[in-house]
């Protein structure tokens, strides 16, 4: 139960992990080299953006494709507000600059100076100005989020996705028009944005931590439940009093705010703001991260982001020039792996035959290609070299396809990482007592008034049940119903057992599996009044093997049918 | 003042007249059943009351305030909650979460307070959990034990129906519209749900309007029965009177051409 979670222990564990991550990051920043540092910073920045997109896509269930637009707004606002004077002079002296003296004068430094806060305009306090610029960038993006949220009130599903995609592109394209060029400096953008924040692991990971904290707390609050209700069923959510418009717009606005923050860090990371830093591929990467990690799971999305960033940063070897035989060997190995993987998958899911003709053919082709490429690298068709441009994106796309085919809900599905899960605490599992009660309730033979079970073991189960009954204790209000978890008035007088069809239909399969061994109340033949006289061995009642055997049989039958079909297919072929 | 009063409500979809000049009242604490053949306009009536559709003409009032033109969530705020004929639960959420969601509207705390888990938010959350368990306790241990934290998709059909009714109760509404509460239940479960509906009125104090096809359930619990056919009210009154009404028999069974005169006499 959530209320009974050991909160102090979890907090301590979390703080410990945060401290360890902090130490690791400090080590990476000091020793790890520029490449590792950049990769981790990129992970944090894209992580913020992917998490914020997940609030709309995963939690609220609205497919939004315009996230790069919000990042652009946040990025440009942040860049303009903290641009150093040297960069401003360069822009104003350039003949192609579209900026006016007024727009060039917009800066946090200027604002602080005007407010008389001279102490905050020194180079040493640049971080304060950066934070303010970041916040303003986020807020401006939030305003645009509100604007985009409005069409979402009338549109649903695919149509809304198209609108948000259009909106993202409109933001990017209008930013270079003469109307907005004084603010964005047209296609030139800004150069010389201070990069000590976007590349600092301390800053980026602190902001990632804040984002993760806010969004997960939001998810597990009453507001988060309302958003998830919208995802699950919009009509039902509205019928349960969730104001759709307000909650959707709220989701868009909060999401856009964090996207704006990510945009600000992104321009700092790149030390420049240009329109081609905010192409649709950004949103695509975040979508891949969300789909891989698990739609709706924030910790899963971080995992997905790690995968995407790793491929993006360390995928260079994929795009270099290699001799053709290397490519053939690679393709052969992949096809062979696909064949073997297919067989493994069929074995795991108990499909027969394990060696389906298709897996055999795939594995054979792969093995042959691999063998030829390895044994005869100088064979004439292998002359020449090949460079695969864009292989990283192809790899990501293939990854997406594989995940969608094998585990469409993503690695983490909707679940979040939690200490209880890590320590194998199963809170949702029924206790033996609850199982006993449930079996008693759902077995019509056992709770039939005057039925055989009444005389026998049902008393035990009844006691177990009445101790576990919830807040409303009907029995205490109705003395005649003492001992019964449900009053007799609620039970069918004739007993459902009177009708053979009903008896079969209403006896749940789970009774046998849930029944605790040794409890005669769960004996399969409870209705026949056997419990008292049954010998010890037989009274152990619910034979687990039996239950499993029955379930297994049912499954086996299905599989056998499939097998049969396949054999038929083969026969025809 | 009557709890719900429907006055001359008409709604048509293109050429189809779904309800025509429909009028009736529901008094506080009553259980009223709406019956009628398929396509009679029962679910349309529910959709009109709950704000899914806006009536073309006429007025719907809850305790004297008009509901016409309000959105479904505003109607819930006014005090009418419903269940759906074909279950619309939040399937990936747990039973408890399903019953917590309808209380979000009444115990609204700004989102940033929810993020920071301020005192007022925690207080609201505590009350919400209490109310949720209260609503669920109507259904006894069936939903109260480990089921509380199970996702709805693992529940049986009957338990889903129970969860949906608990969810409607948790909105804090005064009046519940139940759309076929016993659909898909076996006779034992039907009997049980009959008792629960009665207890919802007696102990929970709800006024209940229900659509139902199982006549024994209708006969057992209804104070009053309203019969619809082709969007018109063809009969209203106690169950025994209504089921023997010739117009009702005609609507359900059709008219026999040779005893038209007898019917006129009756």
Question: Can you tag this structure with a few keywords?
Answer:
heterodimer, A: 573 residues, mainly alpha, two-stranded antiparallel sheet, globular, disordered C terminus, B: 266 residues, alpha/beta, Rossmann fold, 2 domains, six-stranded mixed sheet, four-stranded antiparallel sheet, 12 helices, 40% helix
Characterization of the model:
The complex is a heterodimer of chains A (573) and B (266). The longest helix of chain A has 29 residues, at 544-572. In chain A, helix 2 (33-59) packs antiparallel against helix 13, helix 3 (67-82) packs antiparallel against helix 7 (126-149) and helix 11 crosses helix 13 (244-270). Chain A is globular, with a radius of gyration of 32 Å. Chain A is built from 27 helices and four strands. With 573 residues, chain A is an all-alpha fold. Helices cover 64% and strands 2% of the residues of chain A. With 266 residues, chain B is an alpha/beta fold. Chain B folds into two domains: 1-79 and 173-266, 3-Layer(aba) Sandwich (Rossmann fold), CATH 3.40.50; 90-171, no CATH class. In chain B, the strands form two sheets. Chain B has a six-stranded mixed β-sheet with strand order 6-7-8-3-9-10, sandwiched between helices. In chain B, strand 7 (175-179), helix 8 (187-202) and strand 8 form a beta-alpha-beta unit. In chain B, helix 5 packs across helix 7. The radius of gyration of chain B is 20 Å and the shape is globular. Classes of the chains: A mainly alpha (573), B alpha/beta (266). Chains A and B meet through helix 10, helix 11, helix 12, helix 13 and helix 20 of A and helix 2, helix 4, helix 5, helix 6 and helix 8 of B.
